[in-house]
Amino acid sequence: MSRILDLLDAHRITMTSFMIGDAVRRHPDVAAEIVRRGHEAGAHGRSWQPQYQLPRPQEEEWIADSVRAIEQATGTRPTGYNNYWIRPGVNTLEILQELGFTYHIDDLSADEPFLQTINGRPFATVPYSVHLNDIASFDFPGFNPAAYQQQLTDEFDQLYAEGAHQRRMMVIGLHERLSGHASRVRVLDRVFTRLRYHEDVWWARKDQIAQWVLDHPDTAAWVDRGPAPVSGLPGRSA
Fold first, then answer.
1. Cβ neighbour number for residue 84 with a 10 Å cutoff
2. What is the pLDDT, as a whole number, of residue 137?
3. What is this structure's pTM?
4. Chain segment 71-119, per-residue pLDDT in tens
5. Which residues pair with 43 in a beta bridge?
6. How many CB atoms lie within 10 A of CB 181?
7. What is the CATH number of the domain that holds 155?
8. Is residue 237 part of a domain?
9. How far is C-alpha 154 from the chain's CA centre?
10. In terms of residue numbers, what domain contains 50?
11. What are the pLDDT digits (tens) for 7-21?
12. Of 111, 212, 115, 126, which is closest to residue 163 (Cα–Cα)?
């Protein structure tokens, strides 16, 4: 079984796992085990390919198909969505709202969750800290586990200091094929051990973060963007 899952168990941390529909159908036992251990199953499309070029009906089916795969394998319906390489289309957020999703993560513009009005209703964004994604980090020549440990620690310390005055959030993106290496798991173990002693920090799944901000709209940050074809940003499409 995954070293990362075992590490999270040891530190009593639950996470969000964004699952590709085709991969879930090939390995339903893995998807089910992730959920059994208390983690959230988020949707990541039918396959790891861009969807932003799809006409609206095809994009809706692309998303809905991944939902069906996850529901069948795990018994849970995903409420969060992540596009291929953080690239939603102009209709994506409206489709997600219509399909019962409550949040997406395809935004890099903030260090805190925020709300937008989509289809006349609040919809949450839990921004992606892409620079803390292990794919982005370990792709740099010479970047090593020790450097990753320092990056995660420095990011946390800065956000923790800012958090005394304003809401702050940190997301660590992990993939078993990268962070599951023995030496890198040891790095994560040291990072979690150091960060976990801060008792006033909430370690949460993304659905929990999204639901919290939806439950507290009066204190949440709100973003008002123009239609996606005009602004070029994830937002209302009409």
1. 16
2. 82
3. 0.93
4. 999 999 999 999 998 889 899 999 999 999 999 999 988 899 999 999 8
5. 19, 81
6. 15
7. 3.20.20.370
8. no
9. 21
10. 3-231
11. 999 999 999 999 999
12. 111
The two tokens of residue 17 are 């796992």
Is the residue at 238 inside a domain?
no
Tokens of 140: 């740099």
pLDDT bracket for residue 238 (50, 70, 90)? low
Residue 132 lies in a domain: yes
Q: Which of 101-105, 167-171, 177-181, 215-219 has the lowest mean pLDDT?
A: 177-181
Determine how β-strand 221-222 pairs with β-strand 121-125: unpaired
Q: 76 in a domain, yes or no?
A: yes
> Count of domains in the chain?
1
CB 205 within 8 A of CB 14: yes
- β-strand pairing of 16-19 with 40-43: parallel
